[in-house]
C-alpha cells in the first residue's frame, strides 16, 4: 500500500506511544475502530453486505449461479472471489494501481475458504458431477482507510450470511435425462451457515510491540503507523 | 480485545441537531442569489445577465450591502502573513543546497512558516525568519479543510491543559507537548527525540479527537472552541470520543458554551 512521508520526530512519537499502549487517537494497541455492518444493500444479488471500519468502506455482493462441480470435488459447490480496488477508494489505485492489491486479497480469501470447515460446500451440490451452486463473491473497495483484510473478511462473512440460494429439485425422466425444477415460492431458499467462516485479524509489529494495524480515521495517520512496522502478520482464525 | 459492531443509523441533518433557528441560504455554482442590483458583490459571486450569480458552492453571507458566498470546502489560498504548517515533499537539487540544508531539513519534515509572498498562479513563498518558526519536533498532525480555521491574531496557542497548538491557515494543525525550556528549543532546527510522558500523550490524543469531532460538525476551529471541546470531553475516555453519539454530545455542549460566551 502507499506510504506517507513522516518526519523522524513523528515516527519516534508514534513508536513510543505504541510501546506505552496509547496510540495517536487514544486507542490501545488492541482496540478496533467502530464497525458499522449492513446487509441486503444490493437488490439484484443473492446476498450483499456493506462494512464501514473508520474510513474504510467495503461492499460485497454474492451471486449464486449454477455450474459444474470441479473434477476433484464432484460432491461440492465452490466459491469464486473477485476483489476490485477501484480508483474511487484512493488515488493510488488509479489505472492498474489497484490490481496487485486486489489479487493479493483475493488469493488470501481463496486460502481461507480452501478447507472443509469454513463453509459447508456439500450443501451447494445439486447433483453430483453434474450440477452445483457456484457463489461468485465480488468485493468492491469504496474507500480505503486502512485495515482492508479485517474489514473485507467481516464483509464477506456478513454477505454469505445474507445469501439466499433458491431451493431446487432434480427430476429424473424415464429416459434418464434430468430436469431441474425451481420451487414456485420465491422465498423458499437455503441459507448458508457462516458460524465457521474465519475473521482476519491483522497484527503489526511496531518498535518492540505487537499491536493491531487498525487505525484512526485519518488515512495519513494510518499509513504513518503502517509505514513504521516492517512486518505484517495475517493470522486467520475461526469463530 | 472486544470489537464493537453497530447497525447504521440515519444521520440527522446538522441544523436539527444543533438547534439552528435560521436556515442558511445554500447555493451551488450557477445559482441566482438575487436579482436586486443594489448589492456589492463579494467573494464567490459574479454579475451576469443583471443577476448576482454564485460561483462556488456554499452559504450566502450578507453584511449590509455586501453579498458574498462562503464556500464549504476550499483549497487553501495563501495570503501574506498567514501562518502555515507544511511538509517537505521535494527539494531543489543544487550543490549549495545539498551542503547547506541537508543537515537541517529532510524530505518528510514538518515546518511552521509564514507566507512572504503570493504569486499570480497561487503559489506562495514562505519564510522562517523568526525563532518561533522552524522545524517541528514530536507531536501529532491533523489535516482539516482550510475553511474551518478561523483567522486570528495569533495561531500559536499554549493551552492550559498541557499541550500547545499551531493552527495553520492551510488546514494543517500541529499538536505538540508544551516544552518547558522555551528559550532553547524555540525555532531551532534540531528536534528533541526524548520520549514524551504518558500524561502529555493523553492530552495530545484527546485534543486530536476533539478537533476531529469539531470538524465533523463543521465548527470553526480556534483556541477557545478547541479548549471548550476538550473540557466537554473530559468525562469520556479518549477512545470513546471517536464514537458518533459521543462526538455529537460533546460538540453540542461546546456550541452551547460558545453561544453563551458570545451572547
UniProtKB/TrEMBL annotation, chain A:
InterPro entries: ExoRNase_PH_dom1, Exosome_comp_Rrp42_subfam, PNPase/RNase_PH_dom_sf, Ribosomal_Su5_D2-typ_SF. This is Exosome component 7. Component of the RNA exosome core complex (Exo-9), composed of EXOSC1, EXOSC2, EXOSC3, EXOSC4, EXOSC5, EXOSC6, EXOSC7, EXOSC8 and EXOSC9; within the complex interacts with EXOSC2 and EXOSC4. The catalytically inactive RNA exosome core complex (Exo-9) associates with the catalytic subunit EXOSC10/RRP6. Exo-9 may associate with DIS3 to form the nucleolar exosome complex, or DIS3L to form the cytoplasmic exosome complex. Exo-9 is formed by a hexameric base ring consisting of the heterodimers EXOSC4-EXOSC9, EXOSC5-EXOSC8 and EXOSC6-EXOSC7, and a cap ring consisting of EXOSC1, EXOSC2 and EXOSC3. It holds the Pfam family RNase_PH. It comes from Carlito syrichta (Philippine tarsier). Belongs to the RNase PH family. The gene is EXOSC7. Gene3D superfamilies: GHMP Kinase, N-terminal domain. One of its GO terms (molecular function) is mRNA 3'-UTR AU-rich region binding. It is found in: Cytoplasm; Nucleus, Nucleolus. The keyword RNA-binding applies. The keyword Ion transport does not apply. One of its GO terms (biological process) is nuclear polyadenylation-dependent rRNA catabolic process. Keywords: Acetylation, Cytoplasm, Exosome, Nucleus, RNA-binding, rRNA processing. Residues 32-166 form the Exoribonuclease phosphorolytic domain. One of its GO terms (cellular component) is nuclear exosome (RNase complex).
TrEMBL record, chain B:
Keywords: Exosome, RNA-binding, rRNA processing. Residues 139-180 form the K Homology domain. Pfam families: ECR1_N (PF14382), KH_6 (PF15985), S1_RRP4 (PF21266). Residues 26-63 form the Exosome complex component N-terminal domain. Its main location: nucleus. The keyword Cytoplasm does not apply. GO terms for cellular component: cytoplasmic exosome (RNase complex); nuclear exosome (RNase complex). It is found in: Nucleus. CDD domains: KH-I_Rrp4_eukar (cd22525), S1_Rrp4 (cd05789). One of its GO terms (biological process) is TRAMP-dependent tRNA surveillance pathway. Residues 90-116 form the RRP4 S1 domain. GO terms for molecular function: RNA binding. This is Exosome complex component RRP4 isoform X2. The gene is EXOSC2.
